[in-house]
């Protein structure tokens, strides 16, 4: 890859702010009269495209939210929760639930609910019904 000049690098960095080639050209020192055509021309250079692409990848890495980071944050939340506070206690329980989901130790529970004389049973797939009948 051909090395970028300081002015082209400045253009790329400015372009990454708002993805407006004309404004990036002006901010990096090109004439306002020719900024539109300069910006368009600069974006066609392979080395400019590659630099922009690499910078975008690096920026994306900084904001990547991995399962490990989420797990760490939930553990931090558990450490700082005041369990005497009902709101924080609810957050604590939610964090534990999320940690269980993330670690694969979670299966949704099925409950029956009664409203007056009507009993609402959880939906069961045909396979589950067949398995229950075989086990009974």
Q: Can you describe this structure?
A:
The protein is mainly alpha-helical. Among the domains are: 6-62, Arc Repressor Mutant, subunit A; 67-102, no CATH class. The protein contains seven helices and two strands; from the N terminus they run ααααααββα. A hairpin with a 2-residue loop joins β1 and β2. The protein is elongated, with a radius of gyration of 28 Å.
Radius of gyration, in Å, reads 28 Å
* Overall morphology: elongated
Beta-strand proportion: under 5%
Structural class: mainly alpha
Q: Give helix and strand order, one letter per element, not per position.
A: HHHHHHEEH
Question: What is the H level of CATH, i.e. the homologous superfamily of the domain at 6-62?
Answer: Terminase, small subunit, N-terminal DNA-binding domain, HTH motif
Q: Biggest sheet, strands in spatial order?
A: 1-2
Major β-sheet profile: 2 strands, antiparallel
Percent of residues in helices comes to: 55-70%
Q: What name does CATH use for the topology of the domain at 6-62?
A: Arc Repressor Mutant, subunit A
Number of strands: 2
Indicate the CATH class of the domain at 6-62. Answer: Mainly Alpha
- The CATH architecture of the domain at 6-62 can be given as Orthogonal Bundle
What is the distance, rounded to the nearest whole angstrom, between the alpha carbons of the first and last residues?
A: 71 Å
DSSP summary: helix tally = 7
Taking all residues together, what is the mean pLDDT?
79
Unreliable spans are none
């Amino acid at each position: 890859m051909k090395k970028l000049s300081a002015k082209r690098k400045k253009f790329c960095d400015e372009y990454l702010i708002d993805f407006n080639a004309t404004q990036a050209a002006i901010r990096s020192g090109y004439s306002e009269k020719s900024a539109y055509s300069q910006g368009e021309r600069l974006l066609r250079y392979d080395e400019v495209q590659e630099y922009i692409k690499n910078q975008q990848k690096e920026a994306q890495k900084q904001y990547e939210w991995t399962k490990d980071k989420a797990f760490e944050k939930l553990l931090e939340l558990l450490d700082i929760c005041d369990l005497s506070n009902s709101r924080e206690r609810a957050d604590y329980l939610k964090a534990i639930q999320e940690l269980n989901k993330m670690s694969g130790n979670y299966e949704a529970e099925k409950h029956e609910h009664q409203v007056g004389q009507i009993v609402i049973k959880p939906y069961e797939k045909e396979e589950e019904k067949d398995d229950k009948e075989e086990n009974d």
